[in-house]
Amino acid sequence: MKISWHGQSCLQILTDSGMTILMDPFITGNPKSDLDPNTVQADVIILTHAHDDHIGDTEPIAKRTGALIIANVEIASFFEKKGLKTHGMQMGGKHQFDFGEIKMTPAIHGSSYEIEGETVTLGLAAGIIFSADKQTIYHAGDTALFTDMKLIGAYKTIDVAFLPIGDNYTMGPEDAIIAASYIQAKKVVPIHYNTFPLIEQNAEDFCTSLSEDQGLALKIGEVIDLSYM
């Protein structure tokens, strides 16, 4: 499995079988993104929650590529009504797809979206545990620190945990350090920071505060190959 980070919480995953997966594809309006929503490929789009900076370009990408959208039931229903392929899940649920296994975990955050000028809540925010190619990642989505993160590491060995550090809207670096100690992932990659002034953080400082060589501050578009980790 190969993974790259594209600003905010957007990940691009390439499985060994050749499947391309986008998580939280916030591209248009993301000053850090290096992706083009008009050309980026996707077989699957996974969403942690409904905020604009996570749903992002889901609709146009899915319409162009035919990608399957995986999200909570409320978000999935919203996109299904637009004629898109979806698979709805809920907190604590797990499903084995042909490309890997997804388990939806709790997150402490909102999940609203503007529809025809009205702000509507679309289910609950979530984290995602994704397993494929004998490797497992945890994408925390947007969340506060919570002690049940200990259960994530107990459920499966996490090869890479992607944790928000921006503060203000999510946990900041100090809480993310505690989260990392709960999850016990082999590697921790900071996300959801430096996209806007309000969430500016020093990712290198965060990474050096973690145990040994656990922290990994990715550059935009940098690819990590989990088979070598």
Structure notes:
- GO terms for molecular function: hydrolase activity.
- It comes from Carnobacterium viridans.
- This is UPF0173 metal-dependent hydrolase SAMN04487752_2528.
- Belongs to the UPF0173 family.
- Keywords: Hydrolase.
- This protein is an alpha/beta fold and 229 residues long.
- The model has no long low-confidence stretch (mean pLDDT 98).
- The strands form three sheets. A seven-stranded mixed β-sheet has the order 6-5-4-3-2-1-15, with helices on one face. The chain has a six-stranded mixed β-sheet with strand order 7-8-11-12-13-14. It has a two-stranded antiparallel ribbon with strand order 9-10.
- It has helices at 52-55, 58-65, 73-80, 149-155, 173-183, 203-208; strands at residues 2-5, 11-14, 20-23, 44-46, 68-72, 86-89, 94-97, 100-106, 112-115, 118-121, 126-132, 135-139, 160-164, 187-191, 223-225.
- The chain is 19% helix and 30% strand.
- The longest helix is centred in the C-terminal third of the chain and has 11 residues, at 173-183.
- Strand 9 and strand 10 (118-121) form a beta hairpin.
- It has one domain (2-228): Ribonuclease Z/Hydroxyacylglutathione hydrolase-like (Metallo-beta-lactamase, Chain A, 4-Layer Sandwich), CATH 3.60.15.
- The chain is globular.
- The protein is built from six helices and 15 strands.
